[in-house]
Specification:
The complex is a heterodimer of chains A (about 160) and B (about 775). Chain A is built from five helices and five strands, in the order E-E-H-E-E-E-H-H-H-H. By secondary structure, chain A is an alpha+beta fold. In chain A, about 55% of the residues are buried. Chain B has 19 helices and 28 strands. Chain B starts with 14 loop residues before the first helix and ends with a helix. The model of chain B has no long low-confidence stretch (mean pLDDT about 95). The chains are: A alpha+beta (about 160), B alpha+beta (about 775).
Chain lengths: ~160, ~775
């Protein structure tokens, strides 16, 4: 067993975990932050995307201990209290989700995309940047619209 | 139209929890003291199961139980069943082989579960599973449905691996029409096998309460009541009143979560045996081996034309792969959900279809988005397109000549289409797609070394599943009505209990819109309750684009009763005659006076009971209804796909997509568009990239997202989506259903576009860039040889 400590959504957390514990398992099972999902076992689907020290990471591809000392943000931590993050708002406004399972990973990837690529994202860029996020419901059409609008809204 | 009523693009009520990470899926549920299940699955496609040695595994740390098929049989747990009886041409019933939840004597596909380990942690369960020794005697396997009849027999009950040899239509008349035809178009098609891949893997959590001798199952189900019925009545796990099934938020279904699977049965059984909650969550790799697959047809079809390009007959012969066992509704998919749609949008006087369903050593095959109707559309729309090319006619013109133009229309294959305007959707789609400008775009593409093609798909589907008597006469083991209960609270807010289940469709919004429209209250005052057998008495679930047409019709019936009772109460309270009470915009008014009561005031009066005779009118305001449709509904439309092919690499890109669909009344156009988008993506995925590959020994080669191509955002352009409208005459709202249309229409549109660009019909789905490149090379070689 290994001790781990990190900051998750602004709160310091510590635990002792089996060294095999993935970051996503730690978030879901230990911290009960079940908004981060697991949709595959080969790092393809992106349902588990969180931010580690400000950058998007697939939390199924790292062990909990690898986030030692890091600042982790999950979907539960992106809103500012009651006020939704502009990207969350954009997904609702543009019907960028149906079953909701891929949505947390999509939103976390989208915020990261804006952080890296800026607020004016063309559709082609968004579609290619979504290489690592799978959705089976929406055909991506409204996800692309939502990210485009959310990116612009993040400017303000 | 009110701001939140029928026809408004209301933003979804359910989104708040999904965008904030507060969704509540089965794997998010944890129970005190829960244990974890891990399944040991057969690595062989076909083998006798001689013995399983579990001793070493049982002695591992943290292990509570290691259970096998022998234990299951010892506890007299019944088999899984297929609930739709199909009879062969000769009148014999389909050959349903026993399907135990854990195999006991033989295994029939790679992934067939043979044992389960229950442990304190999942890691301990997995570690122990490695210590289980299974003695298999490997037998030869078959995966190709076309070879099943001559392969080693899989089940004792099914000689030649044949489940049924079924037919529909008039063989003699069809043959006569073919003999008299001016032209016959012939085609051989493979409808490729697909893995549904809802993003949420299946999961089950079972808990036993010894105090009440009752079981609770949380599972990823599209129809929890049907799951309870089957697990109770057929598997014999517990009486219905001692089994609660809860399907909370479910992350996509597409059919694959309709069925009753071994894992949920085993979790329930194991929870009772170990006396603790048992949780199982599928890995994605496991899902590839354990979730029912879709499609997998091999078809030869012939379409006869007269001298005017009128279709005079259609003859179809299909072999359908049902996999290693018969899944819950598998028998109905290649029969009554398939051959009954072979008339397409066309007046075809003679149709005959034969379907042989076979066992193979593959994962069971059952309904996947569209279920039989995409397969039918693919046959008809490929034939029409190829026919037009062979006859030298414009494909749109050939379609127009053959469209059904008057309704109702009785086809030769059971269905009676009630309403539609196929010309309207074709015309609108052609305008939106700028078909007139296609020649110019094709020439432009050629200048860049690209081949450009355009393909149509004018599809029809039968939705609103389904009239109970009709499906009963065709072999269904259940009725397919839907239930609703409307509970009005004393303060005027409303809860609607529905037997439908949402897993992406947005019922919490659209059903609330109906209530808002009818009762004149805000959708914020309405909650939709579904997915729990302890809350909703019974219901048939969500699939077959039925929730609007059938589920909402049940709500309408219940609302009618609520309104009728509320009028009686309002009449007493306002001391007026019941016939003088009008209800509009949430207000009960005494006609011709200024006396009125708001809906909430009447609701309160109903519960207070001071001002009406409670001996004549019971207090309270709560009404239930069961709605059984009188006909299927018939959504139809036209999709037009344009693709570009790089001649050097074969790289194929969908560059434009236009969809014009007639779904009847739209409750929420935003949600309808979303449904169309998703369906198109699944259909394009099938046509261009998704390929389920078994090797000759029955190993699934495409068993993960590394090997099975899931459609990604860059596979698509933005879609142009529009609608036309003819109301469905058979249900109160005029709804036809929209959930499956895209997946039904899309494959034929893609393949018609690709073959148009290539100038050859010799390419099968999935038309990957590699397949397209090969087709180009073959054509080049043939051209060189010819020169």
């Amino acid at each position: 067993m290994l001790p781990v400590s990190m900051t998750v959504n602004g709160k310091a957390v510590t635990a002792t975990v089996d060294p095999r514990t993935l970051l996503v398992q730690y978030l879901r099972d230990n911290l009960r932050l079940t908004g981060t999902h697991v949709g595959c076992d080969t790092s393809q689907c992106g349902a588990c995307v969180v931010h580690v020290d400000g950058a998007a990471r697939k939390s199924c591809t790292m062990f909990a201990w690898q986030a030692e000392g890091a600042k982790v943000t999950t979907i539960e931590g992106v809103a500012n209290g009651e006020k939704l993050h502009p990207m969350q708002e954009a997904f609702r406004e543009h019907h960028g989700l149906q079953c909701g399972y891929c949505t947390p990973g999509m939103i976390m990837s989208a915020i990261d995309m804006v952080n890296r690529k800026g607020n004016d994202l063309d559709d082609n860029t968004i579609r290619h940047e979504l290489e690592g996020n799978l959705c089976r419901c929406t055909g991506y059409h409204n996800i692309v619209k939502a990210i485009s609008a959310g990116a612009r809204a993040m400017k303000g | 139209m009110s701001a939140t009523g029928i026809g408004a693009a209301v933003r979804r009520k359910e989104d708040q929890r999904f965008i904030t990470g507060k969704g509540h899926y089965t794997d998010d549920v944890s129970r005190p003291g829960q244990t974890f299940a891990y399944f040991v699955r057969s690595p062989h496609a076909h083998a006798k199961l001689h013995s399983i040695d579990v001793k070493a595994a049982a002695a591992m740390p943290g292990i509570l139980a290691v259970l096998t098929g022998q234990d299951l049989a010892g506890d007299k747990i019944g088999n899984l069943i297929c609930g739709w009886m199909i009879h062969s041409k000769d009148g014999s019933p389909m050959k349903m082989a026993p399907h135990p939840a854990l195999a006991a004597t033989k295994v029939c596909y790679v992934g067939d579960p043979v044992a389960v380990v229950i442990a304190e942690t999942l890691a301990q369960a997995k570690d122990a599973a490695e210590k289980i020794a299974v003695d298999y005697e490997v037998l030869s396997a078959v995966t190709d449905p076309a070879k099943a009849k001559s392969a080693a027999q899989i089940h004792d009950v099914a000689p030649k691996n044949t489940i049924y040899e079924w037919h529909l239509g008039d063989s003699k008349a069809t043959d006569a029409a073919l003999a008299a035809a001016k032209h016959i178009t012939r085609i051989d098609l493979t409808n490729n096998r697909l893995v549904p891949n809802a993003m949420e893997p299946r999961a089950a959590l079972a808990e036993y309460d010894s105090g009440t001798d009752s079981l609770t199952l949380w599972n990823t189900s599209q129809n929890p009541h049907v799951a309870r019925l089957v697990i109770s009545a057929f598997v014999g796990m517990a009486p219905e009143h001692k089994l609660r099934v809860i399907a909370p938020d479910v992350g996509g279904g597409f059919g694959s979560k309709i069925f009753i699977y071994p894992e949920e049965v085993v979790c329930l059984w194991a929870a009772r045996r170990v006396g603790r909650p048992v949780k199982w969550t599928s890995d994605r790799s496991e899902a590839f081996l354990a979730d029912a697959h879709g499609r997998d047809h091999v078809t030869h079809a012939e379409m006869a034309f007269d001298g005017d390009g009128k279709i005079t007959a259609l003859k179809v012969k299909t072999i359908a792969n049902l996999g290693g066992y018969m899944s819950t509704f598998s028998s109905s998919v290649p029969t009554y959900l398939y051959a009954t749609l072979l008339s397409g949008q066309y007046a075809i006087p003679n149709i005959y279809c034969e379907v042989d369903a076979v066992y193979t050593n593959t994962v069971p095959v059952d309904a996947y988005r569209g279920a039989g109707r995409p397969e039918a559309t693919f046959v008809v729309e490929r034939l029409v397109e190829v026919g037009a090319r062979e006859l030298g006619l414009d494909p749109a013109e050939l379609r127009k000549r053959n469209f059904i133009k008057s309704f109702p229309h009785q086809t030769p294959v059971i269905m009676a289409y009630d309403a539609g305007d196929y010309l309207a959707s074709l015309k609108k789609a052609m305008e939106l797609a700028d078909v007139k400008g296609f020649g110019r775009r094709k020439r432009d593409a050629a200048r860049h070394g690209k081949l450009r093609g355009l393909g149509y798909s004018t599809y029809i589907e039968a939705c609103g599943i389904a009239p109970s008597q009709a499906v009963g006469s065709l072999g269904a083991g259940v009725g397919l009505w839907e239930s609703a209960e409307v509970r009005v609270n004393p303060t005027g807010s409303v809860e609607v209990l529905t037997g439908c289940h949402q897993h992406g469709q947005g019922h919490e919004t659209t059903f609330a819109q109906l209530v808002s429209e009818r009762l004149g209250i805000s959708i914020d005052q309405v909650s939709i309750v579904h997915g729990d057998t302890d809350k909703v008495q019974f219901g048939m679930g969500t699939y077959g684009s039925r929730s609007g047409a059938v589920g909402m019709s049940a709500i309408v019936k219940a609302l009618d009763k609520v309104e009728a009772k509320a009028k009686k109460i309002a009449a007493h309270v306002m001391e007026a005659a019941e016939g003088d009470i009008e209800f509009r915009d949430g207000k009960f008014t005494v006609a011709g006076t200024d006396k009125s009561m708001a809906f909430g005031e009447v609701a309160l009066a109903a519960y207070v009971g001071h001002k009406f005779p409670t001996q004549e009118i019971e207090p309270g305001l709560k009404e239930g209804a069961f709605y059984d449709p009188t006909n299927f509904t018939f959504p139809a439309g036209c999709h037009i796909c344009e693709i570009e092919i790089d001649q050097e690499t074969g790289e194929t890109e969908v560059v434009s997509w236009t969809a014009v669909d007639d779904f009847g009344t739209l409750i929420n156009p935003m949600i309808v568009e979303g449904q169309v988008h998703g369906g198109i993506a699944q259909g394009v995925g099938q046509a261009m990239i998704e390929q389920t590959v078994y090797d000759k020994d029955g190993q699934l080669l495409s068993g993960s997202y590394m090997d099975y191509a899931m459609p990604r955002a860059h596979n698509f352009p933005a879609f142009k989506v529009d609608t036309t409208e003819t109301k469905c005459p058979s249900n109160p709202l005029g709804i036809k259903g929209c959930g499956e249309a895209g997946a039904i229409a899309a494959p034929a549109a893609v393949m018609n576009a690709i073959t148009d660009a290539l100038g050859t019909e010799k390419i099968e789905m999935p038309a990957t860039s590699m397949a397209v490149w090969r087709a180009l090379q073959t054509m080049n070689r043939n051209q060189v040889a010819a020169e």
